[in-house]
Write a structure and sequence with these properties.
With about 260 residues, the chain is α/β, with parallel strands linked by helices. The protein contains ten helices and eight strands. α5 runs antiparallel to α7. The radius of gyration is 17 Å and the shape is globular.
């Protein structure tokens, strides 16, 4: 992995060259979800292999507080706007003037804020695992932060709290940093703001996802957006679904 300083915060990232026979001379930046990392969200699910094989340069970072990036413990350090600027600064660091940007769950929230703040930097926007909760509600309940701070997994009874605490432990995450992140990264966009997202957008949500909110409701608010239903998949399993990959590749090929 490589690293760079984003306004004084050390962030880790990977930068992969295309492996296919026909490089597209396009870059896609990947932004992972809460409690995950570039490895868990994008490498282990074969996304990086799929995209590089399709001819794309792939850049993926570990968000602040996650993976191999610096851990911070102030919730204010994790606002969606701040983390969107991390992605923008990574693009600056790598001299990438414009790229496709794909985020999942919290990463989709970050990517949407990036597209709104810097539309000239985003050629196409791919929002996975986040639907109308970008506007209405915030997706993951605040109780996830409490789960991160609980003395142990054994004392938790709520299924969602147990799922995220177990996932964080399995990925050897910094629980204190994740608690700060979930408290600080809950910014929604208004209907008017979503309506100003001025780039082609694909919204992909699993039909069994009880975290994201309906994807088609969000897509209806974005002027140049389409929706894809990831059939039968919940929030976790939708990420690496084969049909999801096919839909993304088809969307990218049209831009």
């Amino acid at each position: 992995m490589q690293s760079f300083s984003s306004d004084g915060v050390n962030l880790a990232f990977i930068d992969l060259a295309p492996t296919g026979d026909q490089p597209r001379h396009e870059t896609i930046v990947l932004v992972h979800g809460f409690g995950s990392s570039h490895m868990v969200n994008w490498v282990n699910t074969q996304w990086t292999k799929t995209l590089t094989h399709a001819g794309y340069r792939v850049v993926a970072l570990d968000n602040r507080g996650h993976g191999e990036s610096e851990k911070l413990y102030d919730p204010a350090a994790y606002s969606s706007q701040v983390m969107a600027e991390d992605v923008r600064r990574l693009m600056d660091h790598l001299d990438i003037p414009r790229a496709f940007v794909m985020g999942y769950s919290m990463g989709a929230r970050i990517s949407a804020h990036l597209a709104l703040a810097h539309p000239q930097r985003v050629k196409g926007l791919l929002l996975g695992g986040l639907g109308i909760h970008l506007v209405e509600g915030v997706g993951l309940p605040l109780g996830i932060a409490d789960a991160m701070e609980a003395p142990s997994l054994d004392g938790l009874t709520d299924p969602m709290q147990r799922m995220f605490r177990a996932f964080a432990e399995a990925t050897k995450s910094d629980l204190k940093a994740l608690a700060a992140c979930i408290r600080g990264s809950r910014q929604v966009l208004s209907v008017e703001e979503v309506g100003r997202i001025a780039v082609p957008t694909l919204v992909s949500v699993g039909t069994a996802d009880d975290v994201a909110g309906p994807g088609r409701e969000l897509a209806a608010l974005i002027p140049d957006a389409e929706a894809f239903d990831i059939e039968g998949r919940d929030h976790n399993l939708a990420v690496g679904d084969k049909s999801h990959k096919q839909a993304v590749l088809a969307f990218l090929s049209r831009l």
